Amino acid sequence: MTMRRVNVVILVLLAVAFLIIVQRNLLNLSDFLHKEHPDAGMILPFESELSPDIKLELVRKGEEIPVLITASEERLGAVVAAMNSIYQNSKANVVFTIVTLNDTADHLQLWLSKTKLKNVNYKIVIFQPELLNGKISKDPQILEATKPLTFARFYLPAYLPEAEKAIYLDDDIIVQGDIQDLFETHIKPGHAAAFSDDCDSASAKGIIRGAGNQNNYIGFLDFKKEAVKKLGMRATTCSFNPGLIVANLTEWRYQNITKQLEHWMELNTQADLYSKTLAESITTPPLLIVFYKRHSSIDPMWHVRHLGTTGAGNRYSTQFVKAAKLLHWNGHYKPWGRTSSFTDVWDKWFIPDPTGKFHPVRRHTD
């Protein structure tokens, strides 16, 4: 009996020793994993509704998706809404580059830091208007209408020196799909960018009435001018909208696209090449020339536009707008203004300005 008791005691001691060794190994493994993956166990914002008590947020990893957007003081709320819609509708590692002017940077920084966008990966870059010296007409009317930041898209490689591929977006957009899918848009070999053709099935109805043929080249360029004639372009070629660009920056650099765009800007100041019926952005004509039949196409549902034109509310159904991956309020009527269509969609993503400077204009109902 004594021997049996000794054997039992020895077995118990061995079991305890074994458990102690296992516990220590597990603790060491936990420490190792924490050092290797300090973010393990945290949650993405999309998972917060499943675990409301957990407040930590995972730093997004994986392939970076560079997105460039511009921010002007009078439209700052647009940038915030656009960024919020992109960030909340994707788990991708989106990195924003926000191009702005000196007088806006502090306001933007404060706005982002005081909202849920403070965890977004972004950098603010100051645009240098001197870049446009000699490249914009000195006509007073044109100068007054020119917004320097609209030309930032011409300088994508300069703002994103390490990127091989990137997305440019106008500020008057809302993204409802996963931007990872847009980033994966196929760009054909030899093409430096993909655009949305103005004759595509989703937005072809959005032709701007009374502003010439704004869905083809003759609506943007003066085909009577010798420099335009020499290019041999067909005037009836379908134009594209540069409010959304998926760019192959490696090819952009190789073809020196920026230099080509600057050349046509400078030539226009001398020869007045743009169409007299040009309704909107003067950034479009040089892009149409440089990318004539040398660009890839974007899925039409990834650029449903003309929401800022007259009659947009009748042109698109609520169901269609809900199904769209990206909405663009190009045109005179913006979703932060009083007379735009589908402002409720934009309002969903807008984050109020903590400084109180920016206020969407809304109809008052009694």
UniProtKB/TrEMBL annotation:
Coiled coil: none annotated. It comes from the Eukaryota. Its main location: membrane. One of its GO terms (cellular component) is membrane. It is a single-pass type II membrane protein. GO terms for molecular function: UDP-glycosyltransferase activity. InterPro entries: Glyco_trans_8, Glycosyltrans_8_dom-fam, Nucleotide-diphossugar_trans. Keywords: Glycoprotein, Glycosyltransferase, Membrane, Signal-anchor, Transferase, Transmembrane, Transmembrane helix. Pfam families: Glyco_transf_8. It is found in: Membrane. Belongs to the glycosyltransferase 8 family. PANTHER family: GLYCOSYLTRANSFERASE 8 DOMAIN-CONTAINING PROTEIN, GLYCOSYLTRANSFERASE 8 DOMAIN-CONTAINING PROTEIN 1. This is Glycosyltransferase 8 domain-containing protein 1. It comes from Xyrichtys novacula.
